[in-house]
Amino acid sequence: MAGEAVVIRGRLFDGEEIIEKGVLAFDVESGLITGAGERGSIEEPRNARVVEVEGSTITPGFIDVHMHFFGSKTLDLAEWNVTPDATVAIRSVTDMWNLLSSGFTAVRDLGSKVGTHISKAERAGEIKGPRVISAAKSLAQTGGNDDYKILPIHMAHELSYSYYCDSPWECRKAVRLCMRDGAEAIKVYASGTMSHDGQWKPHLTVEELTAIADEAHRSHVKATAHAYGEQAIRNVVEAGIDSIEHGLELTGETAKLIRSKGIYYVPTLSVYSIHKPAEGTRRSEVIARHLGEEMEIAREHKLKIAAGTDFVGAGESPHGMNYTEMKLLAEHLGSLEALKSGTSVAADCLGLPETGRLRKGKVADILVIKGKPDRNIEDASPGHIAHVFHDGKQFR
Ligand SMILES: [Zn+2]
Ligand SMILES: [Zn+2]
User: Fold this and answer.
1) Tell me, what DSSP letter sits at residue 379?
2) Domain identity same for 230 and 316
3) Are residues 28 and 83 in the same domain?
4) Domain count, the chain
5) Are residues 176 and 138 in the same domain?
């Protein structure tokens, strides 16, 4: 169905390369791109609204592959668990708008109590924001990372944003509960985070993780795992999970394994840059290594690195500043590769072939950015986002 057409002419980043004299056309009604490439190489629709952009770059909408709708004010587990769902949902509506207006047209919510509802509301046109791929609740072992242990177990589980599961069959059941909730991805905690002595432990066995990956794949969704520490990374790789979140303690050996299995690496540098821990602690050492040496290992081994902030919407990790991850990745990969991490590579990581690239037949998730973010990633910051089109509709 052909409806109102829009043509944008200017410098174009199609998700993979720069086309200096580019042009892109899309149909507003279907929300699909009808052509993109070198000027003169595509047929521009007649009677189209033509936008000429100068000094700007046309890019795919940005994607954050790891965030949460926690609607919280602080980075505090108790608050994440006890904030009423209605409050979380109300705050998330604002977060959704801040994400979209800063150029994010798709996000993956890796565990929350409202994500699937936010997702449905956006697709129904009831709220404005990016497309949300929600994991529904995350999966964790009893006594795991996000188990608010002060409470009796039944209360902690009731309030948690995770389903607790122990044994392969409970893990399969938890995946099925997520699918029942409307999940489009599965997130599992394959380790804790840092405890007081700065050590971490793998969580869930390989058998349990394998059951989760298999059950997710049977439902045609990707599985991803929070993993701190070399053993947890090895377990995730062995289990057949599709991506690794955080991935602290990456080594050359594990990088080779990750590469050979085609697993995506999501280092979530942003969340470690919010709070610089006290110097001289183990925590500060492992974070410094993650932000430095481990990123060099990831780059050398050509890992498929996707941009994910792990922002939760709190004051210190506000939705709307999610370009921070591309900025931090650019320090290691350069601006062009960082931009791919937040567009085409992110779309591949999520299994969303319809977005992340500006090509014929793909969804019209398009930005017009003042400057050249492929040369200076700071141009991807919110102040540079001139226009945002999502599903062919203009929001900015
Ligand atoms: Zn995590
Ligand atoms: Zn997270």
Assistant:
1) G
2) yes
3) no
4) 2
5) yes
- Judged by its nearest atom, the ligand closest to the C-alpha of residue 245 is 1
Cα–Cα distance for residue pair 243/66, rounded to 1 Å: 11
Spacing, Cα 311 to ligand 2 middle (Å): 7
Instruction: In whole angstroms, give the CA distance from residue 71 to residue 83.
Output: 8
3-state secondary structure of 37: strand
For the CA of 189, the nearest ligand:
1
Rounded to the nearest angstrom, the distance between the alpha carbon of 130 and the centre of ligand 1 is: 22
CATH number of the domain encompassing residue 293: 3.20.20.140
Q: What are phi and psi of 28, to 5 degrees?
A: -65, -40
Cβ contacts of 288 within 8 Å, gap of 6 or more: none
3-state SS class at 159: helix
One domain, residues 108 and 207: yes
What is the whole-number distance in angstroms between the Cα of residue 154 and the centre of ligand 1?
23
Q: How far is the CA of 68 from the centre of ligand 2 (A)?
A: 6
147 shares its domain with 39: no
Residues 162, 20, single domain; the answer is: no
Using the structure block, give the residue that is written with the tokens 């505090």: 76
Cβ neighbours of 110 (radius 10 Å): 26
Please, which residues bridge with residue 11 across strands? Answer: 57
Instruction: Tell me how long the chain is.
Output: 396
Average pLDDT per consecutive 10 residues, the chain (396 residues; last block may be shorter): 85 98 97 96 93 96 98 86 94 97 98 97 98 98 90 94 97 98 98 75 97 98 97 98 98 98 98 84 90 98 98 90 98 98 98 97 98 98 98 96
CA 195 / ligand 1 centre spacing (Å): 14
Q: Which domain holds residue 228?
A: 62-350
